[in-house]
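Long-time lurker. I teach an intro course on protein structure, and each term I like to show students one example going from raw sequence to a predicted 3D structure in token notation. This year I'd like something fresh instead of my usual example. Would anyone be willing to generate the tokens for the chain below so I can use it in lecture? Attribution to the forum is fine with me.
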Amino acid sequence: MSNAIDENRLRYLFEAARYGAVRAAADALGVNPSVVSRQIALLEQELDAALLDRHSRGVRPTEAGELLIEHYRRHTVDRDDTLARLRELQGLHRGHIDLVLGEGFVADLMGGSLGEFWRRHPRLTISLELAGTSEVIRAIADDRCHIGLVYHPPQDPRIRSCAAIRQPIRLIARPDHPLAKLRRPVKLREIARHELGIMHAGYGTRQLLAMAETSEKVGLSPKLTTTSISILRHFVRSGLGVTLLPAFSVASDLDDGSLVAVPVDNVLLASAEAQIITRLGRELPNAASQLLRFLIGRMKAFRPGRR
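-- Reply from a regular --
Happy to contribute to a lecture. Here you go:
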């Protein structure tokens, strides 16, 4: 077995494992699938170890493959972070930040926080990736992104919560809706009698709602299930029904009075949190650290007791 490991071949292995299929990895890399297969085969030959298990639905890494993938991931992150710090030491004041977030944070982020950050740091660039709760955690744990904005994530030993602020799930309705006129917290049983739109099961709001249903032995039958908060906003604004979301995710609608946020009488829904997360043990480059501190201090989602 050779002492040197070809980094390019490691990248092919990494991408194949990431996408779960050689063809998908090849599409992402812009090469022919045979190139990916050949390079991984050569790596297996050099190391005298099987690195991928092939099955009908794609590929998955073996234990040896997982070890190499983890090595490649950490090496890549360390290299990128070191280069970023070198640029900072050289006084270039440049940098790039990868941010992953749930859709509910978009309006808050774009409504002023990001613009103010760029006015202070005009030479920094940012990429934004929208994802559900599970995907946000995976992107941070796998070091694909520096910072994640996520709503009520499950505990994960790979993740560090840098800020956690209670942001209860509210009933979001038009002011003229019967439930909005009650002028008191509403119960899940009352909500179940009305047309309801909710997020898909991969999102934190839906996962928490499922737990609340179980705790109260109430079954909600949504008329609409979606991966888009924007669609839910239009669903409610059009008078088609109500939804269940944290207030900050529809802040502009609440501010202009087109929608209202009604407390829900449920301990689980009242305990939900908005969090900013990073990977445990990762030292962020200066640019990402600056953005992290800025978001904690500026975003409405991380201000306690707003609504």
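Some talking points for your students: The chain has a mean pLDDT of 88. Residues 93-166+274-302 form a domain with the D-Maltodextrin-Binding Protein; domain 2 fold (CATH 3.40.190.10).
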